């Protein structure tokens, strides 16, 4: 199976590259930008085109959101022209106000923010025009490298002694970029071999948590590992922020459908963080030749 992924520096693109390199049944063609022409797509002729998510669209400038939406719609047109499946990954932030219960796949986001509404229109176009599509809604991605690699950014700030501010009243499911990449390739392999399961899916980690609790756990584990390496580094402090004083905003994705359709189990974010921090420590202790 040959896949094409856009936005080469994105943490999900890098994770897909690592996963494809570990497999003998998958090859990956990486494009540097968020867009691709029909001519270039015709040269590659992948079995699917993947578009990584725009991270934190709630905080992005309207122009950036518009540019992302236009790029995805251009990818849609190219895929329709060549009859190539399209995979668009989107942030759980499209569920702007969250829900008190875990959010099922059939619940289409209805944000009030105009920029987020622009992304919903793009999703509507994909659903309307292209039968062979995946819209994959992800929790906040974390990884050790790449653009929007939350964990990597957090480690750097803590090591630099910076104060890290994080909301404690917004609940979501942190999502390992590596786990998401493994799941996406597995899903596409099954679709390639005849599974009739196109549509929208939720793909996130288990154990809903706030960004403050996530950052606290990372800080504690990082401190413990540094001590084990014999390093005494004063880490930056954490400050809890509260944006929803009445009750926490819950943006928890119900990932039942991806389990039923593809057998994909969500990986606990704590185990993925532990694994990544172990890998970070190993890299830190390696000596250059």
From TrEMBL:
Lineage: Bacteria, Pseudomonadati, Pseudomonadota, Gammaproteobacteria, Oceanospirillales
Entry protein name: dTDP-4-dehydrorhamnose reductase
Top-tier EC class: oxidoreductase
Provenance organism: Aidingimonas halophila
Cofactor note text: Binds 1 Mg(2+) ion per monomer.
Pathway: Carbohydrate biosynthesis; dTDP-L-rhamnose biosynthesis
Reaction(s) catalysed by this chain's protein: dTDP-beta-L-rhamnose + NADP(+) = dTDP-4-dehydro-beta-L-rhamnose + NADPH + H(+)
Cofactor: Mg(2+)
The organism's place on the tree of life at top rank: Bacteria
Residues forming coiled coils: none
Function: Catalyzes the reduction of dTDP-6-deoxy-L-lyxo-4-hexulose to yield dTDP-L-rhamnose.
Annotated Gene Ontology cellular component terms: cytosol
EC assignment: 1.1.1.133
Biological processes annotated in GO: dTDP-rhamnose biosynthetic process; O antigen biosynthetic process
């Amino acid at each position: 199976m040959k896949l094409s992924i856009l936005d080469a520096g994105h943490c999900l693109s890098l994770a897909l590259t690592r996963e494809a390199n570990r497999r003998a049944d998958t090859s990956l063609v990486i494009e540097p930008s968020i867009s691709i022409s029909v001519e270039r797509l015709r040269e590659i002729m992948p079995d699917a085109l993947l578009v990584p998510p725009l991270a934190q669209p709630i905080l992005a400038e309207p122009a950036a959101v518009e540019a992302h939406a236009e790029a995805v719609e251009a990818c849609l047109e190219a895929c329709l022209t060549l009859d190539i499946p399209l995979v668009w990954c989107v942030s759980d932030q499209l569920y702007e106000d969250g829900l008190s219960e875990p959010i099922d796949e059939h619940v289409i986001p209805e944000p009030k923010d105009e920029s987020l509404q622009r992304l919903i229109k793009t999703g509507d176009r994909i659903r309307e025009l292209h039968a062979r599509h995946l819209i994959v809604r992800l929790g906040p991605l974390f990884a050790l490298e790449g653009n929007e690699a939350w964990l990597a950014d957090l480690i750097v700030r803590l090591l630099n002694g910076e104060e890290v501010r994080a909301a404690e009243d917004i609940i979501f499911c942190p999502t390992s970029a590596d786990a998401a990449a493994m799941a996406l390739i597995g899903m596409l392999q099954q679709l390639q071999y005849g599974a009739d399961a196109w549509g929208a899916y939720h793909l996130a980690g288990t154990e809903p948590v706030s960004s403050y609790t996530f950052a606290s756990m990372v800080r504690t584990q990082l401190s413990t590992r540094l001590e084990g390496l014999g390093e005494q580094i004063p880490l930056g402090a954490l400050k809890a922020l509260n944006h929803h004083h009445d009750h926490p905003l819950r943006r928890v994705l119900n990932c039942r459908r991806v389990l039923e359709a593809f057998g994909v189990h969500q990986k606990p974010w704590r185990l993925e963080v532990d694994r990544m921090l172990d890998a970070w420590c190993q890299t830190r202790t390696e000596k250059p030749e």
